Amino acid sequence: MSKTSPAVGGGTGPRLRAELDGIPTYKPGRPAAAGGPAAFKLSSNENPYPPLPGVMERVIATAGIFHRYPDLSCAGLTEELAGRFDVPLEHVATGTGSVGVAQQLVQATAGPGDEVIYAWRSFEAYPIITQISGAASVKVPLTGAEAHDLDAMADAVTDRTRLIFVCNPNNPTGTVVRRAELERFLDRVPGDVLVVLDEAYREFIRDAEVPDGTDLYRERPNVAVLRTFSKAYGLAGLRVGFAIAHEPVAAALRKTAVPFGVSQIAQDAAVASLRAETQLLERVEALVTERTRVVGGLAGQGWTVPETQANFVWLRLGERTLDFAAACEAAGVMVRPFAGEGVRVTIGETEANDLFLQAAEKFREEL
Known about the structure:
- This protein has 367 residues and is of the alpha/beta class.
- The protein contains twelve helices and twelve strands.
- The protein has a seven-stranded mixed beta sheet with strand order 2-8-7-6-5-3-4, sandwiched between helices.
- Helix 6 (179-188) links the parallel strand 5 and strand 6 (194-198).
- Helix 1 packs antiparallel against helix 9 (264-274).
- The chain is globular.
- The protein starts with 39 loop residues before the first strand and ends with a helix.
- The mean pLDDT is 94.
């Protein structure tokens, strides 16, 4: 058949789902370019520390059997998580990072004609995984303080609402929802609507008024909690996250999971990380200390910085966003710009944070 011949049977190719048209593309943080001016990557909220003690040794040992399939049920990790959070085994479900579990939750609850509510701006994967399922996104603007407007989100609930994401702390602004307002919100949400508390940055919270989602889920069957090993635990490259939810929801997550999606290396690394909690807490505390220093430095330069409880800071820059990102890159650090809105900057190594503060000060002086 010649290259110009029509396809056998006619037509121009397979018909794909219309829901995929115009789907937003996830934009990862740009790495530092090899040989370029940027030496530090502060664009992906990664942990700057190497794996926790004992993790690398466990990974190396497990690598010797990666010609075998991993444990489909993630039994060892599930048991470790159930014990760590004092929940039934049946209430734990794992997946390829918390974003993978989030997509499973949408698949399990929402389809064409349904709605998924979330704040905006928030985690940029939410509109992607919602559109993939065929459901409609209901984006509720953040408040002027860059935080969730829970009253507006509750007002947005309709009989088509199937799932609500509450990102706490919020990515990319770092702001939090505190206990009293979150409980009032949950009281307003119908019991047949799943509320997902996305707590990817839970370990960095120092505000005592921010609740642990696992406390709220216990008495509320329509609440699920998302966590990840990608941030505080430093396993971003291994892709392992989990949800804690009541049995019907957790069972649905297991049904929608990609078989063997979480590698055995990831499972074993996660277990080893959980068992290195003392060292984990020391590293997180060091990052929180750096966070305080960076926020103080920016405030001293005259920037308005929302209170952050995550491992990053947010600067709303509007039309100056891309110029600021370029200035940071020229100074040696990659940040994460959201064109026309602002930049998110991860708290990294002390040297990287210093370079960022210097770039921010110079940019402000030149305005």
